[in-house]
Amino acid sequence: MTEMKHILRLYITGRTARSERAIANLHSICENELKGKYEMEVVDVLEQPQLAENEKILATPTLVKRLPPPLRRLIGDLSDIDKVILGLDIRTHDEQ
Prior knowledge:
- By secondary structure, this protein is of the alpha+beta class.
- The protein has one domain: Glutaredoxin, CATH 3.40.30.
- The chain is built from three helices and four strands, in the order βαβαββα.
- Strands 2-1-3-4 form a four-stranded mixed beta sheet.
């Protein structure tokens, strides 16, 4: 069975300390839990406001898991790793 890649998009507002922390936390979680089976895109809503509007992003940082279904959204700097793993429905490599 082929494992589906996780498609993740993180919306931030500028390169603030909170945004940088969210990026670093997400990258760490993805590397530790998804072992390269992910695509991560960072969207700065100041530079690409239309993307944020299309997704109805009201607060940043916001993480959107596009694939695999279901679509999930998490708001914040993603510092609570257990909450992020649960919220994104990520099964660790040991559980698969």
